[in-house]
Amino acid sequence: MELFYNDQIDNQTKVFKLEGKEHIHIKKVLRKKEGQIVKFTNGNSCCFSARIISILEKESNFEIISKTKFENPPFLHVAISLLKSQTRFEMFLEKAVEIGVSEITPLICERSQKKNMNVKRSKNILISAIKQSNKYFLPKLNEPQNFKNFVKKNKDENKLLATCEDYQKKNIIKAYDSKKNNLIMIGPEGDFSKSELENAKLADFQFVSLGKNRLRAETAGMMACAIFSMIK
């Protein structure tokens, strides 16, 4: 069964309507009929089964017949540099959602070749990814942040940084802790600068290795998510 997203639904909702693209998709692409059941999520780990009351020209109307609340997954926050290629960055967003991530912060680092992003487009990619992969939790996407400011204010319990530089590093599998809030930072093309690494070290970040192979930034981000998803 297809999954739809509607952030206006909550535990108090009994009936609601869809307009715009989602309505068109239900009416003209899926050709749903009155009385059929459609599955929705609000992105807060909830699944709602809704019966179609009516499909009109410009809107579809629904009534909720059941709801299920799931536990939130273990917390992983990935802070990753904006990349020169928007396509590669958007691939990371999509795959991170499919694999599992709680929060994403785009970073502006010294070696970042891009300084901004289309936040609205990126959020739509996250929404599309949870629908395609039938997930009920929508990760939080933050506005791009400067590396130095982010390192200073971050309060996550288990703070990790992946780097290719020759520092004393832990194996990422051993560094993750599924019982805590985990943050991992991934650098841009060319890795973090020496000064950024020193700032992170002073802010109590642990340096970790993702293995012997040198990875593209988006691949490193996806691998960080994949390894975390296997930690019990």
Poorly predicted runs of 5 or more residues: none
Return the string of H and E elements: EEHEEEEHEHEEHEEHEHEH
* Number of discrete domains: 2
Overall pLDDT confidence:
93
The Cα radius of gyration reads: 20 Å
Helix segment tally: 7
Overview of this protein structure:
The chain has 232 residues and is of the alpha/beta class. The chain folds into 2 domains: 3-69, Ribosomal Protein L25, Chain P, CATH 2.40.240.20; 76-230, 3-Layer(aba) Sandwich (Alpha/beta knot), CATH 3.40.1280.10. The chain is 31% helix and 28% strand. It has 7 helices and 13 strands. The protein has helices spanning 20-29, 86-99, 119-132, 147-153, 172-175, 194-202, 217-230; strands at residues 3-5, 15-18, 37-41, 46-55, 60-69, 76-81, 103-108, 140-141, 145-146, 158-162, 170-171, 182-186, 206-209. Strands 6, 7, 8, 9, 10, 11, 12 and 13 form an 8-stranded parallel beta sheet that branches. A 5-stranded mixed beta sheet has the order 1-3-4-5-2. A hairpin with a 4-residue loop joins strand 4 and strand 5. Helix 2 (86-99) runs parallel beside helix 3 (119-132) and helix 2 (86-99) runs parallel beside helix 7 (217-230). The longest helix has 14 residues, at 86-99. 29% of the residues are buried. The model has no long low-confidence stretch (mean pLDDT 93).
